[in-house]
Amino acid sequence: MSSLDVPSLVRSGAVCTTWRAAYAAFRTLRLPSPAQGPCMLYAADNGSDGGAMYMYCPSTNAKFRVPFFHSEERGGPGFVFSASGAWVFTTDEAGDPFLLNPLTGARALLPPVRTLPGLDAFFDAQGDSTGPGGLPVRAKDWAFRRVAIGSDDDRTPLVMVVHMLNEMLAFARPGDARWTPLSGVGPLVGQHRRCFSDVVYHRSRGLFYALRRDGSVYNVDLHGHGGGRRLPEVRKIMREVSVVSSDVKYLAVAPRDVNGGGGGLLQVWRIWHHTHGPLEHRHTFQDSVRRKLVFQDRLDCSEDDADTGNINEIGDHDADTDDETPSTTSTCLGTAAGKRKKKKLGIATSEVVVFRVDEGRQKLVKLRGIGREHALFVGNNSGVCLPTKDFPAFEPNCAYLTADSNAYGATLPIDMGVWSFEKRRMRGHGAAAWPEELRRRQPRAEYWPGSLPAPVWITPSL
């Protein structure tokens, strides 16, 4: 059993009573298993399966149903976010969050959504409200933006979230009665307490890191907090690099051998465009620099010596021609099918740019990619870089993108694809990383029902 990947290990326990006993003993003894590659967790979009969740493992091409998200009492899942480790953060029908191990069904309840600052008066007990512009919103889809999960003692989860209203920070442990806001702690005052784009937990440093939409970064030390112990400590480690923008910014921990990352932080900027808009209205990173939306004196582009002048000229000629199977990247590539539905408001990724955070010089160092031995996974998950030599189903120096439903909305076209840092464009060549039913989906069906979460990358663990 120690030679099996984690999904196969779980399935082995269903073979017979003898295998079930062996599987139980394996878990009890906490025996080591091989490094686990990313799997995709996604919802069925047909009524016959009741919004069931599935897990697909690209390394083995195996797929199995995950039964723990749905119940008659709670209905289907709301917001689903994958953080490092065994846990997935999700919500029930009323928007109240909990942690779930999708392989074992283990749960850990978190404080109710209405204990977040400002949300007690915004949502009713059923999680319903009238949002900005008079549109109805549900707490289960709208209240949470990003999640990071750490621990004090490698056993008790410690959860930090970016939440609405105003994309602020709060944290809690399972069993806490309320979420604890971080607004007003240290430098998190005034405008600096809101507009956070991402959070991540740096396991080797034991710190949380939070990224604002202006590129500034804060570290948060929560160890020892709780039960009357010391207050959280927040420190600003990176200054503002841009104006606050609607482009999505992620954090990821850099592998030690990636472009001098040394286990530090990467910023990943996902620049998007409206699919119904004209090509000339799409902007690139270089456009932002020219328009002084990005502060050039706080960038170091010396490590990126490639020509970036036309990297966003995306059209039919950009699509890879060696794919026999339609890819879910079609809505990102501006294909003819995509153009036929341009009247439908949607958002697609135009460009992905990666930086190394240089705390000493207070600059972002623009990189040509993440190296020829790693792949990057971002979306509704904690950003992670993994070595491709261990997982040949994935291509090196590429970013595997899933829909960021927080930014784009669950009813818009699926913004999924593989960004090649070498070619600097979306490509369909890596479509085999997705389950067959997503690969074969026709453009007219590429709209997720509003009641289903977007697909996410997870790294299964027992």
From TrEMBL:
Protein name (record): KIB1-4 beta-propeller domain-containing protein
Region called Disordered, residue ranges: 306-330
Domain KIB1-4 beta-propeller: 80-418
Pfam families: Beta-prop_KIB1-4
